Amino acid sequence: MSGTPKELLARHGLRPKKSWGQNFLGDEHALSLIARAVAPAAGEVVLELGPGLGHLTRALLGAGAQVVAVERDRDMVRVLEGQALPGLRVVAADAARIDFAATSGVPRVAVVGNLPYHLTSPILFEVLDQHAEVSRAVFTVQREVATRLAAEPGGRDYGLLSVLLGLFFKVETMATLPAALFHPPPQVDSAVIRLTALPAPRAQVHSAERFKRLVKAGFGQRRKTLQNALKADPTLGSPEKVLAALQAAGVEPQRRAETLSVEEFAAIERALD
Asked: Phi and psi dihedrals of 225, rounded to 5?
């Protein structure tokens, strides 16, 4: 079954659910670009989050993937199942609340999706929590989010997810997608990002959970110096212990979080021991 998103919705008597952030991408060039960014091997299982009407699903299947599509909208599930596409398995579930490996049936999986803007952060944090099971992830997100994720230290765009994702993934912006390519068009342009798992973490940390708390505290009050910002999380230790860790890591306490590299945050985390 083919057709533009508008045509398919009309055929099934459906409308986009604005409260669910449904903006359907039907542009063949953009869909092909996303499938090439995933670059599935023949027969490789790809986990698609929020497949909607199945336009990207068909592009992935055409690229040789076996697709496990996770969709919470029962209307979309009905549309997908009605297409009976070879190589597709549809799972009715919330994409922001699934175990990637268990759902896909493989220990390490490529994850892809045109993400609703309001679910971008929850899903990215799931990718972080399940990073050992993710070989790569290709997502369509709001363009300014893509800019932040791929930002380098020192600028205003560099932030919490830049560091946390940077520990485990190479982050690339693959393309910008104008709002007009979607139905209905969102208020802003989108971008395609690719997260490729590093062979090993960019830097050693003793506790991934403490690293996350450290980075979160550092960026929680961006205008404060690192020494003062880290006081917001007492689980990191007393002010004296934190100061000693900064000094042991060779990080000037008066610097701000946005100037620190992933490696410097990791050095502080290790020094907290």
From this structure: -65, 160
* CB hemisphere CA count around 206 (13 angstroms): 8
Q: Is 203 domain-assigned?
A: no
| End position of a domain, from candidates 197, 227, 262 | 197
Threshold 0.90, pTM exceeds: yes
End-to-end alpha carbon distance in the chain: 58
Are residues 98 and 148 located together in one domain of the fold? yes
**Cα–Cα dist 99/168, whole Å:** 18
Range of the domain at 138: 5-197
pLDDT digits (tens, 9 = 90+) for 85-141: 999 999 999 999 999 999 999 999 999 999 988 899 999 999 999 999 999 999 999
- 84 Cβ neighbours under 8 A, 6+ residues apart: none
